[in-house]
Design goal:
- By secondary structure, this protein is α/β, with parallel strands linked by helices.
- The protein contains 17 helices and 28 strands.
- Among the domains are: 202 residues, 3-Layer(aba) Sandwich (Rossmann fold), CATH 3.40.50; 72 residues, no CATH class; 114 residues, GMP Synthetase, Chain A, domain 3 (2-Layer Sandwich), CATH 3.30.300.
- Helix 11 packs parallel to helix 12 and helix 14 packs across helix 15.
- The longest helix has 19 residues.
Length: 576
Protein backbone atom coordinates (compact mmCIF):
# COMPACT_ATOMS: atom_id res chain seq x y z
CA UNK A 1 0.00 0.00 0.00
CA UNK A 2 1.07 3.63 -0.42
CA UNK A 3 2.91 5.37 2.42
CA UNK A 4 -0.14 7.61 2.89
CA UNK A 5 -2.56 4.71 3.43
CA UNK A 6 0.00 2.93 5.62
CA UNK A 7 0.27 6.04 7.82
CA UNK A 8 -3.53 6.38 7.95
CA UNK A 9 -3.91 2.79 9.14
CA UNK A 10 -0.97 2.93 11.55
CA UNK A 11 -2.36 6.06 13.23
CA UNK A 12 -5.86 4.60 13.57
CA UNK A 13 -4.60 1.38 15.15
CA UNK A 14 -2.10 3.07 17.48
CA UNK A 15 -2.62 3.93 21.12
CA UNK A 16 -3.17 7.56 20.14
CA UNK A 17 -5.76 6.52 17.58
CA UNK A 18 -7.75 4.84 20.36
CA UNK A 19 -7.64 8.05 22.46
CA UNK A 20 -7.90 10.95 20.06
CA UNK A 21 -10.41 11.56 17.32
CA UNK A 22 -13.10 13.88 16.02
CA UNK A 23 -15.88 15.66 17.89
CA UNK A 24 -18.99 16.36 15.82
CA UNK A 25 -22.58 17.39 16.54
CA UNK A 26 -21.82 20.74 18.14
CA UNK A 27 -23.51 22.82 19.43
CA UNK A 28 -26.50 20.62 20.35
CA UNK A 29 -25.37 16.98 20.52
CA UNK A 30 -21.57 16.70 20.65
CA UNK A 31 -20.15 13.22 20.08
CA UNK A 32 -16.49 12.23 20.25
CA UNK A 33 -15.46 9.40 17.92
CA UNK A 34 -11.88 8.10 18.04
CA UNK A 35 -9.82 7.69 14.90
CA UNK A 36 -9.79 3.95 15.67
CA UNK A 37 -13.61 3.89 15.63
CA UNK A 38 -13.67 5.92 12.40
CA UNK A 39 -11.22 3.42 10.90
CA UNK A 40 -13.46 0.48 11.83
CA UNK A 41 -16.45 2.20 10.22
CA UNK A 42 -14.30 2.94 7.19
CA UNK A 43 -13.35 -0.74 6.87
CA UNK A 44 -17.05 -1.59 6.57
CA UNK A 45 -17.71 1.10 3.99
CA UNK A 46 -14.61 0.00 2.06
CA UNK A 47 -15.82 -3.60 2.14
CA UNK A 48 -19.17 -2.50 0.78
CA UNK A 49 -17.52 -0.47 -1.99
CA UNK A 50 -15.33 -3.34 -3.12
CA UNK A 51 -18.26 -5.78 -2.95
CA UNK A 52 -20.29 -3.38 -5.09
CA UNK A 53 -17.60 -3.37 -7.76
CA UNK A 54 -15.32 -0.42 -7.04
CA UNK A 55 -12.10 -1.12 -8.92
CA UNK A 56 -8.60 -0.10 -7.92
CA UNK A 57 -8.17 3.49 -9.06
CA UNK A 58 -11.91 3.99 -9.39
CA UNK A 59 -13.40 7.43 -8.83
CA UNK A 60 -15.81 8.04 -5.96
CA UNK A 61 -17.96 11.16 -5.79
CA UNK A 62 -19.10 12.07 -2.28
CA UNK A 63 -22.14 14.24 -1.59
CA UNK A 64 -22.57 14.75 2.13
CA UNK A 65 -22.20 17.59 4.63
CA UNK A 66 -22.12 15.90 8.03
CA UNK A 67 -18.45 15.54 9.12
CA UNK A 68 -19.36 12.38 11.04
CA UNK A 69 -20.24 10.74 7.72
CA UNK A 70 -17.53 12.28 5.57
CA UNK A 71 -14.55 11.21 7.72
CA UNK A 72 -15.14 7.42 7.58
CA UNK A 73 -16.31 7.67 3.97
CA UNK A 74 -13.16 9.28 2.53
CA UNK A 75 -11.03 7.04 4.76
CA UNK A 76 -12.90 4.08 3.27
CA UNK A 77 -12.34 5.18 -0.31
CA UNK A 78 -8.59 5.24 0.29
CA UNK A 79 -8.70 1.81 1.93
CA UNK A 80 -10.58 0.55 -1.14
CA UNK A 81 -7.97 1.97 -3.52
CA UNK A 82 -10.18 4.73 -4.98
CA UNK A 83 -9.92 8.48 -5.37
CA UNK A 84 -12.22 10.99 -3.66
CA UNK A 85 -14.10 13.84 -5.32
CA UNK A 86 -16.23 16.02 -3.07
CA UNK A 87 -19.13 16.97 -5.34
CA UNK A 88 -20.55 20.49 -5.53
CA UNK A 89 -23.33 20.86 -2.98
CA UNK A 90 -26.64 22.48 -3.93
CA UNK A 91 -27.99 25.32 -1.79
CA UNK A 92 -31.52 26.50 -1.18
CA UNK A 93 -31.22 28.80 -4.19
CA UNK A 94 -29.89 26.10 -6.53
CA UNK A 95 -31.91 25.00 -9.54
CA UNK A 96 -31.81 21.22 -8.96
CA UNK A 97 -32.26 20.36 -12.64
CA UNK A 98 -29.21 22.46 -13.53
CA UNK A 99 -27.30 21.04 -10.58
CA UNK A 100 -28.06 17.48 -11.69
CA UNK A 101 -26.89 18.26 -15.24
CA UNK A 102 -23.68 19.81 -13.92
CA UNK A 103 -23.12 16.84 -11.63
CA UNK A 104 -23.45 14.49 -14.59
CA UNK A 105 -20.72 16.43 -16.37
CA UNK A 106 -18.43 16.17 -13.34
CA UNK A 107 -19.07 12.45 -12.98
CA UNK A 108 -18.43 11.91 -16.67
CA UNK A 109 -15.15 13.76 -16.40
CA UNK A 110 -13.79 11.90 -13.38
CA UNK A 111 -15.22 8.56 -14.54
CA UNK A 112 -13.60 8.61 -17.93
CA UNK A 113 -10.19 9.14 -16.30
CA UNK A 114 -10.75 6.19 -14.00
CA UNK A 115 -10.95 3.85 -16.96
CA UNK A 116 -14.71 3.48 -17.14
CA UNK A 117 -17.15 4.59 -19.79
CA UNK A 118 -18.04 8.25 -19.95
CA UNK A 119 -21.27 8.83 -18.04
CA UNK A 120 -22.45 11.08 -20.84
CA UNK A 121 -22.61 7.90 -22.94
CA UNK A 122 -24.27 5.91 -20.17
CA UNK A 123 -22.48 4.19 -17.31
CA UNK A 124 -18.96 4.86 -16.11
CA UNK A 125 -16.62 3.71 -13.40
CA UNK A 126 -17.83 6.22 -10.81
CA UNK A 127 -19.39 5.44 -7.47
CA UNK A 128 -21.59 8.19 -6.00
CA UNK A 129 -21.99 8.10 -2.23
CA UNK A 130 -24.89 10.02 -0.75
CA UNK A 131 -25.18 11.11 2.87
CA UNK A 132 -26.97 13.48 5.24
CA UNK A 133 -28.43 15.97 4.46
CA UNK A 134 -28.25 15.25 0.75
CA UNK A 135 -29.78 11.77 0.95
CA UNK A 136 -33.07 13.61 0.40
CA UNK A 137 -31.82 14.35 -3.13
CA UNK A 138 -32.07 10.65 -4.01
CA UNK A 139 -35.25 11.22 -6.11
CA UNK A 140 -33.46 13.94 -8.12
CA UNK A 141 -30.58 11.54 -8.83
CA UNK A 142 -33.04 8.81 -9.78
CA UNK A 143 -34.82 11.13 -12.22
CA UNK A 144 -31.50 11.92 -13.89
CA UNK A 145 -30.27 8.31 -14.01
CA UNK A 146 -27.39 8.99 -11.62
CA UNK A 147 -26.70 5.77 -9.73
CA UNK A 148 -25.67 6.09 -6.09
CA UNK A 149 -25.27 4.32 -2.79
CA UNK A 150 -26.35 5.60 0.61
CA UNK A 151 -23.41 5.92 2.99
CA UNK A 152 -25.60 4.76 5.89
CA UNK A 153 -26.26 1.45 4.11
CA UNK A 154 -22.55 0.77 3.68
CA UNK A 155 -21.98 0.91 7.43
CA UNK A 156 -23.66 -2.51 7.56
CA UNK A 157 -21.30 -4.16 5.05
CA UNK A 158 -18.64 -6.76 5.82
CA UNK A 159 -15.32 -5.08 6.69
CA UNK A 160 -12.52 -5.14 4.14
CA UNK A 161 -9.77 -7.54 5.25
CA UNK A 162 -6.80 -5.54 3.98
CA UNK A 163 -6.44 -2.23 2.15
CA UNK A 164 -6.43 -2.52 -1.63
CA UNK A 165 -2.83 -2.05 -2.85
CA UNK A 166 -1.99 1.49 -3.94
CA UNK A 167 1.12 3.23 -5.27
CA UNK A 168 2.54 6.70 -4.64
CA UNK A 169 1.44 7.94 -8.07
CA UNK A 170 -2.15 6.71 -7.70
CA UNK A 171 -4.80 9.41 -7.34
CA UNK A 172 -6.07 10.13 -3.83
CA UNK A 173 -8.07 13.30 -4.48
CA UNK A 174 -9.68 14.95 -7.45
CA UNK A 175 -10.21 18.46 -6.10
CA UNK A 176 -12.82 20.38 -8.09
CA UNK A 177 -11.82 23.95 -8.78
CA UNK A 178 -14.04 26.89 -7.89
CA UNK A 179 -15.00 27.71 -11.47
CA UNK A 180 -18.25 26.98 -13.23
CA UNK A 181 -19.62 23.49 -12.64
CA UNK A 182 -20.91 23.59 -16.22
CA UNK A 183 -17.27 23.52 -17.40
CA UNK A 184 -15.63 21.58 -14.57
CA UNK A 185 -11.95 21.03 -13.88
CA UNK A 186 -10.38 18.90 -11.19
CA UNK A 187 -6.88 19.02 -9.72
CA UNK A 188 -5.19 15.62 -9.52
CA UNK A 189 -3.64 14.93 -6.11
CA UNK A 190 -1.66 11.72 -5.76
CA UNK A 191 -0.97 9.68 -2.62
CA UNK A 192 2.61 10.94 -2.79
CA UNK A 193 1.53 14.58 -3.15
CA UNK A 194 -0.79 14.26 -0.18
CA UNK A 195 1.55 12.65 2.33
CA UNK A 196 4.48 14.89 1.41
CA UNK A 197 2.55 18.12 1.81
CA UNK A 198 0.82 17.05 5.02
CA UNK A 199 4.09 15.91 6.59
CA UNK A 200 5.81 19.20 5.82
CA UNK A 201 2.83 21.16 7.18
CA UNK A 202 2.94 19.20 10.44
CA UNK A 203 6.67 19.77 10.83
CA UNK A 204 6.69 23.47 9.89
CA UNK A 205 3.79 24.21 12.28
CA UNK A 206 5.35 22.02 15.01
CA UNK A 207 2.23 19.99 15.70
CA UNK A 208 2.24 17.64 18.67
CA UNK A 209 -0.67 15.15 18.60
CA UNK A 210 -0.45 14.80 22.37
CA UNK A 211 -1.08 18.51 22.91
CA UNK A 212 -2.66 20.13 19.87
CA UNK A 213 -6.37 20.28 19.09
CA UNK A 214 -7.93 21.68 15.92
CA UNK A 215 -11.27 23.45 15.47
CA UNK A 216 -12.81 23.96 12.05
CA UNK A 217 -16.06 24.84 10.30
CA UNK A 218 -14.49 24.91 6.83
CA UNK A 219 -16.30 22.89 4.14
CA UNK A 220 -14.80 19.55 3.19
CA UNK A 221 -15.41 20.26 -0.49
CA UNK A 222 -12.65 22.89 -0.24
CA UNK A 223 -8.96 21.94 -0.06
CA UNK A 224 -8.35 23.62 3.30
CA UNK A 225 -11.33 21.89 4.87
CA UNK A 226 -10.66 18.50 3.31
CA UNK A 227 -6.86 18.31 3.51
CA UNK A 228 -5.90 20.73 6.26
CA UNK A 229 -8.74 20.16 8.71
CA UNK A 230 -9.81 16.57 8.12
CA UNK A 231 -7.16 14.49 6.37
CA UNK A 232 -4.23 15.96 8.36
CA UNK A 233 -5.69 15.25 11.83
CA UNK A 234 -7.01 11.85 10.70
CA UNK A 235 -3.61 10.86 9.27
CA UNK A 236 -1.51 12.13 12.19
CA UNK A 237 -3.91 11.39 15.06
CA UNK A 238 -4.73 14.95 16.18
CA UNK A 239 -7.92 15.81 18.05
CA UNK A 240 -10.38 17.67 15.82
CA UNK A 241 -13.63 19.52 16.56
CA UNK A 242 -15.52 19.77 13.28
CA UNK A 243 -18.80 21.55 12.55
CA UNK A 244 -20.39 22.33 9.20
CA UNK A 245 -20.21 25.74 7.49
CA UNK A 246 -23.98 26.03 8.06
CA UNK A 247 -23.39 26.11 11.82
CA UNK A 248 -20.87 28.93 11.43
CA UNK A 249 -23.15 30.94 9.16
CA UNK A 250 -26.08 30.51 11.56
CA UNK A 251 -24.03 32.01 14.37
CA UNK A 252 -20.39 32.98 13.67
CA UNK A 253 -19.59 33.21 17.40
CA UNK A 254 -19.79 29.41 17.60
CA UNK A 255 -16.21 29.55 16.33
CA UNK A 256 -14.62 31.37 19.31
CA UNK A 257 -16.98 29.44 21.59
CA UNK A 258 -15.60 26.09 20.39
CA UNK A 259 -12.02 27.35 20.66
CA UNK A 260 -12.75 28.38 24.25
CA UNK A 261 -14.53 25.21 25.40
CA UNK A 262 -12.16 22.75 23.74
CA UNK A 263 -8.97 24.76 24.41
CA UNK A 264 -8.14 24.59 20.71
CA UNK A 265 -4.62 25.38 19.56
CA UNK A 266 -5.19 25.64 15.80
CA UNK A 267 -7.86 26.93 13.44
CA UNK A 268 -8.13 28.52 10.00
CA UNK A 269 -10.43 30.71 7.92
CA UNK A 270 -10.44 33.10 4.95
CA UNK A 271 -10.49 36.89 5.24
CA UNK A 272 -14.25 37.34 5.39
CA UNK A 273 -14.65 35.10 8.44
CA UNK A 274 -12.02 36.97 10.46
CA UNK A 275 -13.72 40.26 9.49
CA UNK A 276 -17.17 39.04 10.53
CA UNK A 277 -16.08 37.48 13.82
CA UNK A 278 -13.94 40.49 14.68
CA UNK A 279 -16.97 42.74 14.40
CA UNK A 280 -19.14 40.33 16.39
CA UNK A 281 -16.56 40.02 19.17
CA UNK A 282 -16.28 43.81 19.38
CA UNK A 283 -19.98 43.92 20.31
CA UNK A 284 -19.72 41.33 23.11
CA UNK A 285 -20.14 43.03 26.50
CA UNK A 286 -18.74 40.31 28.79
CA UNK A 287 -14.91 40.28 28.82
CA UNK A 288 -15.03 36.71 30.14
CA UNK A 289 -17.35 35.35 27.46
CA UNK A 290 -14.45 33.71 25.61
CA UNK A 291 -10.91 32.60 26.36
CA UNK A 292 -8.75 32.37 23.24
CA UNK A 293 -5.44 32.10 25.08
CA UNK A 294 -4.92 28.48 23.99
CA UNK A 295 -4.82 29.38 20.30
CA UNK A 296 -1.32 29.33 18.80
CA UNK A 297 -2.28 29.09 15.10
CA UNK A 298 -5.04 31.16 13.47
CA UNK A 299 -4.21 30.45 9.85
CA UNK A 300 -5.24 32.84 7.09
CA UNK A 301 -4.50 31.51 3.64
CA UNK A 302 -6.61 33.90 1.59
CA UNK A 303 -4.41 35.73 -0.87
CA UNK A 304 -3.79 38.58 -0.56
CA UNK A 305 -4.45 38.64 3.18
CA UNK A 306 -6.67 41.53 4.26
CA UNK A 307 -4.59 43.48 6.77
CA UNK A 308 -7.64 45.43 8.01
CA UNK A 309 -9.66 42.25 8.61
CA UNK A 310 -6.80 40.70 10.58
CA UNK A 311 -6.27 43.88 12.60
CA UNK A 312 -9.96 44.11 13.43
CA UNK A 313 -10.00 40.48 14.52
CA UNK A 314 -6.86 40.63 16.66
CA UNK A 315 -7.95 43.86 18.32
CA UNK A 316 -11.38 42.50 19.22
CA UNK A 317 -10.08 39.04 20.16
CA UNK A 318 -7.27 40.52 22.24
CA UNK A 319 -9.86 41.35 24.86
CA UNK A 320 -10.42 37.60 25.09
CA UNK A 321 -6.71 36.81 25.55
CA UNK A 322 -5.79 36.07 21.93
CA UNK A 323 -2.05 36.35 21.35
CA UNK A 324 -1.67 38.41 18.14
CA UNK A 325 1.35 36.23 17.38
CA UNK A 326 -1.10 33.38 16.76
CA UNK A 327 -2.09 34.92 13.43
CA UNK A 328 -0.51 32.58 10.91
CA UNK A 329 -0.25 33.97 7.35
CA UNK A 330 0.09 31.33 4.66
CA UNK A 331 0.06 30.82 0.92
CA UNK A 332 -1.62 27.80 -0.54
CA UNK A 333 -3.51 26.42 -3.51
CA UNK A 334 -5.03 23.12 -4.54
CA UNK A 335 -2.40 22.61 -7.24
CA UNK A 336 0.24 22.33 -4.48
CA UNK A 337 -2.03 19.88 -2.61
CA UNK A 338 -2.67 22.63 -0.05
CA UNK A 339 0.21 24.58 1.52
CA UNK A 340 3.02 26.40 -0.27
CA UNK A 341 4.44 28.57 2.50
CA UNK A 342 3.89 29.36 6.19
CA UNK A 343 5.01 32.50 8.03
CA UNK A 344 7.31 31.84 11.01
CA UNK A 345 5.40 30.49 14.01
CA UNK A 346 4.39 32.94 16.70
CA UNK A 347 5.33 36.07 14.77
CA UNK A 348 1.85 37.15 13.68
CA UNK A 349 1.14 39.24 10.61
CA UNK A 350 3.99 41.27 9.17
CA UNK A 351 3.52 43.43 6.09
CA UNK A 352 5.84 44.75 3.45
CA UNK A 353 5.10 48.42 2.73
CA UNK A 354 6.04 49.47 -0.80
CA UNK A 355 5.83 52.49 -3.08
CA UNK A 356 2.56 52.56 -5.03
CA UNK A 357 3.92 54.24 -8.15
CA UNK A 358 6.83 51.83 -8.59
CA UNK A 359 4.52 48.88 -8.03
CA UNK A 360 1.83 49.95 -10.48
CA UNK A 361 4.01 51.37 -13.26
CA UNK A 362 7.30 49.45 -13.05
CA UNK A 363 6.30 46.15 -11.35
CA UNK A 364 8.85 46.78 -8.61
CA UNK A 365 8.21 46.44 -4.87
CA UNK A 366 10.30 49.33 -3.55
CA UNK A 367 10.25 49.33 0.28
CA UNK A 368 9.13 52.45 2.15
CA UNK A 369 11.00 53.12 5.45
CA UNK A 370 9.04 53.15 8.71
CA UNK A 371 9.67 56.86 9.26
CA UNK A 372 8.68 57.84 5.72
CA UNK A 373 5.80 60.39 5.73
CA UNK A 374 4.15 58.52 2.85
CA UNK A 375 3.19 55.73 5.23
CA UNK A 376 -0.50 55.80 5.97
CA UNK A 377 -1.29 57.47 2.66
CA UNK A 378 -2.37 56.14 -0.74
CA UNK A 379 1.21 56.54 -1.94
CA UNK A 380 2.06 53.18 -0.40
CA UNK A 381 0.70 49.64 -0.58
CA UNK A 382 1.16 46.90 2.01
CA UNK A 383 1.23 43.14 1.50
CA UNK A 384 1.54 40.27 3.96
CA UNK A 385 4.81 38.36 4.23
CA UNK A 386 3.81 34.71 3.77
CA UNK A 387 6.96 32.90 4.78
CA UNK A 388 9.36 30.68 2.84
CA UNK A 389 8.19 27.65 0.84
CA UNK A 390 7.80 24.38 2.70
CA UNK A 391 10.65 21.87 2.27
CA UNK A 392 10.42 20.09 -1.05
CA UNK A 393 8.87 23.11 -2.80
CA UNK A 394 10.64 25.77 -4.88
CA UNK A 395 9.22 29.14 -5.86
CA UNK A 396 10.43 31.60 -8.49
CA UNK A 397 9.07 34.79 -10.03
CA UNK A 398 8.98 35.18 -13.82
CA UNK A 399 7.92 37.89 -16.26
CA UNK A 400 5.49 37.37 -19.14
CA UNK A 401 8.28 35.92 -21.28
CA UNK A 402 9.33 33.40 -18.64
CA UNK A 403 12.52 35.21 -17.59
CA UNK A 404 13.32 34.65 -13.92
CA UNK A 405 13.14 37.91 -11.97
CA UNK A 406 15.15 39.11 -9.01
CA UNK A 407 14.13 39.99 -5.48
CA UNK A 408 11.35 42.61 -5.23
CA UNK A 409 10.54 42.34 -8.93
CA UNK A 410 6.84 41.58 -9.46
CA UNK A 411 5.80 38.77 -11.79
CA UNK A 412 4.00 35.45 -11.89
CA UNK A 413 4.78 32.90 -9.18
CA UNK A 414 5.89 29.46 -10.39
CA UNK A 415 6.20 26.39 -8.18
CA UNK A 416 8.03 23.08 -8.41
CA UNK A 417 8.25 20.14 -6.04
CA UNK A 418 6.86 16.95 -4.57
CA UNK A 419 3.50 18.44 -3.57
CA UNK A 420 2.71 19.93 -7.01
CA UNK A 421 -0.07 18.25 -8.97
CA UNK A 422 0.83 16.36 -12.13
CA UNK A 423 -2.17 17.89 -13.87
CA UNK A 424 -5.91 18.41 -14.23
CA UNK A 425 -8.93 16.57 -15.49
CA UNK A 426 -11.08 18.64 -17.82
CA UNK A 427 -14.10 18.04 -20.03
CA UNK A 428 -11.66 17.76 -22.94
CA UNK A 429 -9.47 15.20 -21.21
CA UNK A 430 -6.34 15.31 -19.03
CA UNK A 431 -4.28 18.51 -18.98
CA UNK A 432 -0.69 18.72 -17.78
CA UNK A 433 0.05 21.28 -15.05
CA UNK A 434 3.85 21.29 -15.22
CA UNK A 435 6.19 22.40 -17.97
CA UNK A 436 9.10 20.30 -19.21
CA UNK A 437 11.18 21.39 -16.21
CA UNK A 438 8.49 20.60 -13.64
CA UNK A 439 7.35 24.21 -13.05
CA UNK A 440 3.70 25.06 -12.44
CA UNK A 441 2.49 28.56 -13.32
CA UNK A 442 0.14 29.64 -10.53
CA UNK A 443 -1.49 32.68 -12.14
CA UNK A 444 -0.67 34.61 -8.95
CA UNK A 445 1.33 37.82 -9.14
CA UNK A 446 3.88 38.49 -6.41
CA UNK A 447 7.52 38.86 -5.46
CA UNK A 448 10.14 37.50 -3.06
CA UNK A 449 11.68 39.23 -0.04
CA UNK A 450 14.51 37.37 1.73
CA UNK A 451 13.04 34.15 0.40
CA UNK A 452 9.54 34.93 1.68
CA UNK A 453 6.62 34.93 -0.75
CA UNK A 454 4.47 38.04 -1.14
CA UNK A 455 1.19 37.90 -3.09
CA UNK A 456 -0.13 40.99 -4.89
CA UNK A 457 -3.12 39.45 -6.65
CA UNK A 458 -4.32 37.20 -9.48
CA UNK A 459 -2.97 38.00 -12.94
CA UNK A 460 -6.44 37.70 -14.51
CA UNK A 461 -7.95 40.16 -12.00
CA UNK A 462 -5.45 43.03 -12.31
CA UNK A 463 -7.04 46.15 -13.80
CA UNK A 464 -4.80 47.88 -16.36
CA UNK A 465 -5.54 51.56 -16.89
CA UNK A 466 -3.25 54.25 -18.22
CA UNK A 467 -0.23 51.98 -18.05
CA UNK A 468 -0.85 51.21 -14.37
CA UNK A 469 -1.60 47.88 -12.71
CA UNK A 470 -4.44 48.49 -10.27
CA UNK A 471 -4.88 45.59 -7.88
CA UNK A 472 -8.54 44.82 -7.11
CA UNK A 473 -7.80 44.28 -3.42
CA UNK A 474 -6.83 47.95 -3.09
CA UNK A 475 -10.21 48.95 -4.52
CA UNK A 476 -12.04 46.45 -2.35
CA UNK A 477 -10.36 47.50 0.88
CA UNK A 478 -11.20 51.13 0.20
CA UNK A 479 -14.83 50.24 -0.52
CA UNK A 480 -15.12 48.09 2.60
CA UNK A 481 -13.85 50.93 4.76
CA UNK A 482 -17.13 52.75 4.10
CA UNK A 483 -19.79 52.35 6.78
CA UNK A 484 -22.66 50.25 5.50
CA UNK A 485 -20.63 47.99 3.20
CA UNK A 486 -20.68 44.38 4.41
CA UNK A 487 -17.27 43.13 5.52
CA UNK A 488 -15.66 40.94 2.87
CA UNK A 489 -18.42 41.70 0.37
CA UNK A 490 -17.08 44.27 -2.07
CA UNK A 491 -15.61 43.27 -5.42
CA UNK A 492 -13.66 45.17 -8.07
CA UNK A 493 -14.32 43.78 -11.53
CA UNK A 494 -12.69 44.48 -14.88
CA UNK A 495 -14.79 45.95 -17.68
CA UNK A 496 -13.63 45.56 -21.31
CA UNK A 497 -10.50 43.78 -20.08
CA UNK A 498 -7.50 43.92 -22.39
CA UNK A 499 -8.84 46.75 -24.55
CA UNK A 500 -8.13 50.47 -24.70
CA UNK A 501 -11.50 50.99 -22.98
CA UNK A 502 -10.61 48.87 -19.93
CA UNK A 503 -12.32 50.15 -16.80
CA UNK A 504 -13.46 48.76 -13.48
CA UNK A 505 -16.64 48.65 -11.44
CA UNK A 506 -17.32 48.07 -7.77
CA UNK A 507 -20.03 45.60 -6.80
CA UNK A 508 -20.88 45.39 -3.11
CA UNK A 509 -23.44 44.15 -0.63
CA UNK A 510 -25.26 46.36 1.85
CA UNK A 511 -28.43 46.36 3.90
CA UNK A 512 -29.40 49.68 2.29
CA UNK A 513 -29.78 48.05 -1.15
CA UNK A 514 -33.13 49.08 -2.59
CA UNK A 515 -33.52 52.09 -0.27
CA UNK A 516 -33.03 54.75 -2.94
CA UNK A 517 -31.70 57.71 -0.96
CA UNK A 518 -29.43 55.67 1.33
CA UNK A 519 -28.13 53.67 -1.62
CA UNK A 520 -27.24 56.88 -3.49
CA UNK A 521 -25.35 58.21 -0.47
CA UNK A 522 -23.47 54.93 -0.07
CA UNK A 523 -22.58 54.93 -3.76
CA UNK A 524 -21.23 58.49 -3.55
CA UNK A 525 -19.10 57.71 -0.52
CA UNK A 526 -17.71 54.48 -2.00
CA UNK A 527 -16.90 56.27 -5.26
CA UNK A 528 -15.06 59.02 -3.40
CA UNK A 529 -13.17 56.64 -1.09
CA UNK A 530 -12.08 54.33 -3.90
CA UNK A 531 -11.07 57.17 -6.22
CA UNK A 532 -8.93 58.68 -3.47
CA UNK A 533 -7.31 55.32 -2.80
CA UNK A 534 -6.36 54.27 -6.34
CA UNK A 535 -6.51 57.56 -8.25
CA UNK A 536 -8.99 56.34 -10.85
CA UNK A 537 -12.77 56.76 -10.63
CA UNK A 538 -14.85 53.56 -10.91
CA UNK A 539 -17.00 53.24 -14.01
CA UNK A 540 -19.90 52.09 -11.85
CA UNK A 541 -20.85 51.19 -8.27
CA UNK A 542 -23.55 48.55 -7.89
CA UNK A 543 -25.19 47.90 -4.51
CA UNK A 544 -26.72 44.46 -3.93
CA UNK A 545 -28.65 42.93 -1.01
CA UNK A 546 -26.74 40.76 1.50
CA UNK A 547 -26.06 37.20 0.36
CA UNK A 548 -26.12 38.02 -3.36
CA UNK A 549 -22.47 38.04 -4.52
CA UNK A 550 -21.14 34.86 -6.17
CA UNK A 551 -18.56 33.14 -3.97
CA UNK A 552 -16.34 30.08 -3.98
CA UNK A 553 -17.09 27.15 -1.63
CA UNK A 554 -14.66 28.64 0.90
CA UNK A 555 -16.43 32.02 0.88
CA UNK A 556 -14.02 33.94 -1.35
CA UNK A 557 -15.54 36.40 -3.82
CA UNK A 558 -15.69 35.40 -7.51
CA UNK A 559 -14.76 38.46 -9.52
CA UNK A 560 -15.18 37.05 -13.02
CA UNK A 561 -18.53 35.46 -12.20
CA UNK A 562 -19.73 38.73 -10.68
CA UNK A 563 -18.69 40.71 -13.77
CA UNK A 564 -20.54 38.30 -16.02
CA UNK A 565 -23.68 37.88 -13.92
CA UNK A 566 -24.20 41.59 -13.27
CA UNK A 567 -22.83 43.08 -16.52
CA UNK A 568 -26.16 44.62 -17.55
CA UNK A 569 -26.86 46.09 -14.11
CA UNK A 570 -23.32 47.51 -13.90
CA UNK A 571 -23.77 49.22 -17.25
CA UNK A 572 -27.23 50.53 -16.33
CA UNK A 573 -25.95 51.94 -13.07
CA UNK A 574 -23.10 53.69 -14.88
CA UNK A 575 -25.52 55.42 -17.24
CA UNK A 576 -28.00 56.35 -14.50
Amino acid sequence: MSKFVAKLVATATSDGGHKRGMTTGEPTEPVHTTWAEIHERARRVAGGLVAAGLRQGGAVGVLAAAPALIAPTVHAVWLAGGSVTMLHQPTQRTDLAEWAADTMRVLGMIGSDAGGRDLREGGGNVTVLLGDPFDQLAPVLDENDISYQLISDLFEAEPIAEPVPTEEDDLALLQLTSGSTADPKAVKITHGNLLHNMTEMIERSEFDPEIDRMVSWLPTFHDMGMVGFLTVPMTFGIDLVKVSPAEFLRGPLIWPDLITRYRATATAAPNFAYAIVGKRLARVDDDNAYDLSSLRIALNGAEPIDEAAVAGFTEAAGRFKLDPGAVFPAYGLAEATLAVSFAPLGTGLHVDVVDTDALETDNRAVPVPEDDPRRGTDQVRSFALLGTPLPGLEAQIVDEGGTVLGEREVGEIRLRGAAVTPGYLTMDGPLAAQDEHGWFATGDLGYLVDGQIVICGRRKDVIIMGGRNIYPTDVERAAQSVEGVRAGNAIAVRIDAGTRRERYAVVLESKVAGVAEQERELTKEVTARVTAAVGVRPYSVLVLPPGTLPKTPSGKVKRAATASEYAEEIANRASA
